[in-house]
Amino acid sequence: MLRVIVLDNIAPEGLQLLDEADGISYEVRTGLKGQALCDALSEFDGAICRSGVKITPESLSGKPRLRAIVRAGVGTDNIDKTAATRRGIVVMNTPTGNTLSTAEHAFALMLALSRNIAPAHQSLREGRWDRKAYMGSQLADKTLGVVGMGRIGQEVASRARAFQMRVLGYDPFLSAQRAEEFGVELIESVHDMLPHIDYLTVHTPLTPETRGLIGAA
Predict the structure, then answer these.
(1) What would the mean pLDDT of 45-63 be, rounded to a whole number?
(2) How far apart (Å, rounded) are the C-alpha atoms in residues 211 and 81?
């Protein structure tokens, strides 16, 4: 019987998959860190996490039983992949699990900002009805910049076109032909993109090259 530890809260549907899996038992232990995390990992063949726990080289040291760490999400920057690989531990993610929800959330944020939803709601809760103060603006005919044209970036671009937006994209791995298929104007650098856009959304993995990609300057 293989044993799996669930280190962060995951959806009931995810736990149900574990319940139905043959030859697997699991325990949910959240909020672990330091020595407690190190001791817990020694007891299991696999671990499932999200972003709440940080898997460090120290927590992986002396874990001959541990075979795999799975991130229930896209980014794996909270897992030291180099240390895991050196110990023969496979690190996996679920790259399509949140693609549509992330794209939809990006648009929820753009719409909320454009229509001043949060301040207007707060004003209403305080007993005011300042309609003219929160007119906002429409997304149609505005320009959206998408940095990172992977699965999520492509879904965001698709929704932007449905909102009649012009879409500029930056991705060094995307060909001009593929960009044209998505209805996206490919830009050579983020720096060149910024002066021409009304909205910016970034959908890249966190790497040394992308860390601090957008800053005050």
Answers:
(1) 94
(2) 17
